[in-house]
Amino acid sequence: MQQIIQWVKNDPLRCKALEGVFRLQLPECYIAAGFIRNLVWDHLHHVESSTPLNDIDVIYYDPENVSAEMEYHYERLLSHWMPDVNWQVRNQARMHAQNGDAPYTSSIDAMRYWPEIETAVAIRQLPHQQYECVSAFGFESLMSLQVTPNPKRDITVVEQRIVAKRWLSQWPKLRLNVTT
């Protein structure tokens, strides 16, 4: 989605984070979840300065090496690049076991199991300072300020996340969409 890519290009922290992740050259590697979701909701709420990120979620898909130690290694490399960021790096080739799902086939397939569909968005830097923004469910509901529980997950998880993360006080135009 070009609008989201433009917003990212105008955000120095996000550009620097994407550059660091690009340097890792991991397969099917993206920065996902709140990194994009929060940026979109901030812009649609006309927030002047970006909502601080609790962490930056990096996802990749490498079925050849599912060692959790590798994830921590990548987190340390990224922390050296940007020490003020809480990096969370997860190989989606192993996350199905933690979540009780059938094995995922890709990073985007893994996002199809995340609690709310608007969080299942990601971006990565490509060569020549180009970017690719992807979504497991499309961008319409994200751009419409909805929070839609994933039918593959228990709705109470989403309700708890809305409260714990204070989404409705941060972004009051959000609406819970339980009809999907």
Mind explaining what this structure looks like?
The radius of gyration is 16 Å and the shape is globular. It has 180 residues and is α/β, with parallel strands linked by helices. The chain has nine helices and seven strands, in the order ααβαβαβααββαβααβ. It has one domain (2-174): 2-Layer Sandwich (Beta Polymerase, domain 2). The chain has helices at residues 2-9, 12-24, 34-44, 68-81, 92-99, 107-111, 140-143, 155-164, 167-170; strands at 30-32, 56-60, 87-91, 121-126, 130-135, 146-147, 175-176.
Structural class from helices and strands? alpha/beta
- Give the N-terminus to C-terminus distance in angstroms: 22 Å
Give the topology string: H per helix, E per strand: HHEHEHEHHEEHEHHE
Shape type: globular
What's the CATH architecture?
A: 2-Layer Sandwich
- Major sheet description: 5 strands, mixed
Radius of gyration: 16 Å
Strand order of the largest sheet: 3-2-1-4-5
Please give the share of residues in helix.
40-55%
Name of the CATH class: Alpha Beta
**Residue-averaged pLDDT:** 96
